[in-house]
Amino acid sequence: MTTGELTYTRVHDAPPELVFDCMTQPEHLTHFWGPTGTSTPVEEITVDLRPGGSFETVMVSDADGSTYTMRAVYLTIDRPRRLAWYEGDVEGGMRTEVTFSRLPDGRTEVVTRQSNVPEPFLAPEARAGFETSLARFDAYLATLVTHPPA
Predict the structure, then answer these.
(1) Per the CATH hierarchy, to which homologous superfamily does domain 4-34+76-146 belong?
(2) pLDDT single digits (tens) 97-137
(3) For the chain, domain boundaries
(4) What stretches of the chain adopt beta strand conformation (E)?
(5) Rounded to an integer, what distance in angstroms lies between the CA atom of residue 89 and that of residue 149?
(6) 22-57 burial, b if ≥16 CB within 10 A, otherwise e?
(7) Which end of the chain has less Cβ packing within 10 Å, N or C?
């Protein structure tokens, strides 16, 4: 089995607290979790935000209704600076660590590092799918910053 590491860096036009909350609250995650062509119903998202707590999502293909379940255990919760989880169901176990850094202009740099990434997740198609999820996240955040919730 081949494994590797992936790093994605994005700058979001929102403060770290909002970005962190969007990545940890089901009512936000449902708007962007998963690549283009999938949806993640809010009732299919479990967040037990504490070290050792569960993080589970069920992505549904918009084309054929097939599902993909992601199960993880939170390792680190440090709002709004750092978040980490471990996916034991992924062959060999995969770790994801997300760091949130406030930029001088109020935006947030988010760096997502994944380690022990199995070969299929390293494929250009899989990475492109991950990038579409990040683009969906950007678009969702823009709606919150432009039209903050009441």
Answers:
(1) START domain (3.30.530.20)
(2) 999 999 999 999 999 999 999 998 899 999 999 999 999 99
(3) 4-34+76-146
(4) 3-12, 38-39, 45-47, 54-61, 67-78, 82-87, 94-102, 108-118
(5) 36
(6) bbbebebbbbbbbbeebebeeebbebeeeeeeebeb
(7) C
Residue pair 55/73 in contact (Cβ under 8 Å)? The answer is yes
pTM: 0.92
- Could you identify the residue written with the tokens 């022990």? 116
Cβ partners under 8 Å of residue 149, min gap 6: none
CA distances from 142 to 15, 26, 67, 129 (A): 12, 18, 28, 20
CA distances in angstroms from 74 to 20, 33, 77, listed in the order given: 14, 17, 7
pLDDT at 91: 85
